[in-house]
Amino acid sequence: MSQVSIVTLLMALAFAGTHIFIGRLDFLDRTPRNGWLSFAGGTAVAYVFLHILPELGGHRTAFAEAISMGPELAETLVNSLALLGLSSFYALERAIKISRSRSRQMGEGDRIESHMLWLHIGSFSLLNVMIGYLLSHREDMSAGGLALYFIAMALHFATADFGMRRDHVKAYDAYGRWIIAGAVMLGWLMGMLIELPGIAVGGLFAFVAGGVVLNVMKEELPEDRQSRFWPFAAGAIIYSALVIGETMLVTG
């Protein structure tokens, strides 16, 4: 196993650990929203806009060559996949809210129907498989690039996990966290064994970018969260500075 493979394995294990042990950080789950969660959200969003989305530009060539289209059309297609990722997770959140409302109307309390629970877990597991796979298939496999990816995704997982655990605490603690943690490890293993074409890797990047943006913003924007702007802004600014610094070192 190469040194890079060992590093990405450790990163995948850390991601899995975030899912498994997030429940022990109950002090973060309060209203008004804990500043560290808003900081994590700002960091994840900054990573998407300053690292993943610009990196998608490098994949438009693979799209153009694979489908024999112009660069402008290829770029539009890549961005459309990012929009698809955002829209897919927005649809999931709407379905969960409708399911909870339906349960209340039927006198079953504030709960999510069982089939929606499995859809929620399954959707996040699929996203985790993609994120785990991309650990070993990124354009920037430098130490700095991997570190930035790890920080942003770990903080994104923390934010998303709090939201999922709030929706169904018992199911998440009993088996949900293990399924989601296993998904990121499965993604890493697939990355070691399967080499997807460039157009497929670019599509994964785009879809993950859209999903991350929606999952972060849905946690920060609702009024009942009483989210904090300045920690969110601090996370975005600090992480942006790290990305810019890393870019200057690479290009300088």
From TrEMBL:
TM region positions: 6-23, 35-53, 73-96, 117-135, 141-162, 174-193, 199-217, 229-250
Keyword entries, A-Z: Membrane, Transmembrane, Transmembrane helix
The protein's name: Uncharacterized protein
Species per Swiss-Prot/TrEMBL record: Allopontixanthobacter confluentis
